[in-house]
Amino acid sequence: MTQGAAARMTEKIATVLAGREPSLPARAGEALARWLELVQGWNAKVDLTAARSADELADLMLADARLLSEHVPEGRRVVDVGTGAGAPGLPLALLRPDLDVTLVEPLQKRVAFLRTAIGTLVQEGELKKAPRVERARGEDLVRAGRSFEVAISRATLAPDAWLPLGAALTAREPAERREAWVLLARDEPPAHAGWAPAIDLRYRWPLTGAERRAVRYVPEATKNA
């Protein structure tokens, strides 16, 4: 990335994160810029993103994480299933270092990218609490008895298939700490027995104006308590 392109990307990152500046960790902006630089470099040889412009890339990689960073409770164990190039889990970890984040991706080339990117950020001092990376599918973790408090995924499965999987990934946790996020573009929020929406947020990606929706589901018993 040329110096001019890097400066423009920095401006785009600032636009996406507008309003979050007072609570951002030190060097979060630099870390996000470095990660996006790596995404662009690797994307020529590894299918990481279909973004066709810098605006699309910044929105696609950062906007959902920015929203989640304001709503995931402190100190939670988070899993991002089908993370691809790392979104939204990696930027969420950068914006919220109190979270314990696991990135799950089945494709080896993408896993190699994630490990390289995280290693680079750690080596350059821009990431102090590194997310774990696992080559797996969400169903593999359920079968292995793995457990998390917050389950997130974007576009890996249809919403009505993702919500039951997200619920299963949190099944071993206390009910009051369980939540699954469904990130939507055009689909309507799904339903799953025993779970109910607790937060339903409509928003726009700031650079491209794409309409989005994020729904936080919790066990019905905790919502009605």
TrEMBL record:
From what superkingdom does this record's organism come? Bacteria
A GO molecular function for this record? rRNA (guanine-N7-)-methyltransferase activity
What keywords were assigned to this record? Cytoplasm, Methyltransferase, rRNA processing, S-adenosyl-L-methionine, Transferase
SUPFAM superfamilies documented for this protein: S-adenosyl-L-methionine-dependent methyltransferases
Q: Does the keyword Cytoplasm apply?
A: yes
Gene3D superfamilies the record matches: Vaccinia Virus protein VP39
Q: Please tell me whether the keyword NADP is annotated for this protein.
A: no
Sorted alphabetically, which InterPro entries does this protein's record hold? rRNA_ssu_MeTfrase_G (IPR003682), SAM-dependent_MTases_sf (IPR029063)
Please give an example of a GO cellular component term from this record.
cytosol
Where is S-adenosyl-L-methionine annotated to bind?
G82, G138, E139, R154
Q: Return the broad EC class.
A: transferase
Any idea what job this protein has?
Specifically methylates the N7 position of a guanine in 16S rRNA.
Q: What is this protein called?
A: Ribosomal RNA small subunit methyltransferase G
Species the sequence originates in: Sorangium cellulosum (Polyangium cellulosum)
